[in-house]
Every structure is written in structure tokens, then in C-alpha cells.
Amino acid sequence: MRLDKIERPPLEAAIHRLYTICIGQYVANRLTKQRLKLLWYAPGYWPILFLPNLSLLRKFWLLARLLRIDWKVLHGHTPYECAMVCRALAERPSQLGETMIESGCWEGGSSAKWSLMCQVMGYHLIIYDSFEGVEVAASPVGEYDYSGEYAAQEEVVWQNLKRYGAPDSCRTVKGWFCETMGAGKIINQVRLAYIDCDTAKGTKEALTGIIPAMTKDCVIFSQDCHIPSVLRFLTNPSTWKDFKIPIPRMQRLERRLVRLEMGIP
């Protein structure tokens, strides 16, 4: 199974090179860098204006809130990637007890965004994170080692949810995925899952908990498909054979983001 590699469009690639040469190497603050990148990434929110099941007023409200989070809170995704997740959530309102799962949240920038969309569509958001950064583990040869990165205190995530998101739609679960996301640990049905844990091991552990709880039309997003070991894991047919489910339909939406349509009968 293969997924085509997505390259940056020529204009975007040229702007990114110019940014790296002229600005990026001289700016140390990560939030300032994120704000600068909005100059060319913000138009990626265009799918928000075409979301189903939302009024035009609600779409503009959501867009303004998403841009506010981009300006205030560190995160690891682009506006277009965010819009693709929001579009999947907007496909239908929640049925009783259905949830969205987020595996890996850093400072809660993505969590705040998903919470707003979950509130609109009636879903409950469950956020799983160690709050100690990426698990320390031996990385495959030639891959960047993320061990210990993206650590943030649980209190920081909740502060950002309260300031910029919809905290009443959320709860957090602290711990390593092998402890918190095992088979049978997730009780509510999962309509959508967003996995951003930077390792193949973490991706497998998250799926171990998510798959038994999936709805028939469950959609799973992996934000880590720029990492070769994660991409190999997801595109290996034996992965899905071990989970005892059909191979999902996979669509690469961005360099890092892949959508998996599970289609469980």
C-alpha cells in the first residue's frame, strides 16, 4: 500500500525558503514564528467557509476563533490541516454519547480548536496526553528523535481551553498511551480521532484503544505521516490484519496529515 508524497506548491516552497533565510533563523520565539507563518498559511482555512451543517454566521464565528488560537497558543498543525479535521466533524452531528479522541495535545492549541467544533456538532472531546512530552524511545536509524519534546503541563492545556476553547465539551486523560488507551479503555463510541504523538509506537497504542470503540463511519487522522516509521506502520497491510479489520481507505491531505476512513461493516 502506498500513499503519494505531497510536495509544497512552488510558490509556498519559495516563500518558505525566503522565510527561513531572511526571518526564521533570526527569530527564536516559537509563538512569534507561528504568527509570522500565518501570513501565508492562513488562507488554508478556506474550507471552513464551505462546511456543511453550519450557518454562514457560525462559519465566520468559527474562523475568527480559530485564528485567535493561532495567534495565542502554540500548536503543530497548519490551518488547512485544521480545516480538514473540522470538515470531517461537520459531516454529521453527534449521536448520543459519541466522542472525538485527541492523542497528543502539547499546549492545547489543537484541543481548543477541536473543542469549538465539537461543541457546535454536539461531540465530547477526550484528550489523551502524558503531559511529559514524547515518550523516550529508540528512534529508527535516520529519523529525528522527538523524545521529551512537546511537553506541557495539564494546567496549561486547561488554561488555553478555558480562554480560547469550549472547556465544557472536554476532559483530559493523563498518562502514557499504553496505560490509558488499551483495548476496552475507551467506553464511548469514537466518531473521529486525531493522532499526533510523533512515534509509530504511540500511534499503535492509540489505535489499540480507538479501534474497538469506533462508529461505523469513524474517521481517523494521523498528523505524523512525515515520519517514515509512522507512514510505514499505517501503510503496512499486516498492521490492519493484526487489528482484525479491513484496510482503511487512506487519503494524504498534506505532507504530514493522512485521513483514514475506517468503513467498519
Q: Which runs of at least 5 residues are low in confidence (pLDDT < 50)?
A: none
Please tally the helical runs, counting DSSP H or I stretches of 4 or more residues. 10
Helix content: 40-55%
Beta-sheet strand percentage? 5-15%
Distance between the termini: 21 Å
Main sheet? 7 strands, mixed
| Secondary-structure element order, N to C | HHHHEHEHEHEHEHHEE
Summarize the structure.
With 265 residues, the protein is α/β, with parallel strands linked by helices. The chain contains ten helices and seven strands.
Provide the fold topology.
Blueprint: H1 10-22, H2 30-41, H3 56-72, H4 79-89, E1 99-103, H5 109-121, E2 124-129, H6 154-164, E3 170-174, H7 177-180, E4 190-195, H8 200-210, E5 214-222, H9 228-235, H10 237-242, E6 249-252, E7 258-261
Parallel strand pairs: 1-2, 1-4, 2-3, 4-5
Antiparallel strand pairs: 5-7, 6-7
Helix pairs in contact: 3-5, 4-5, 5-6, 8-9
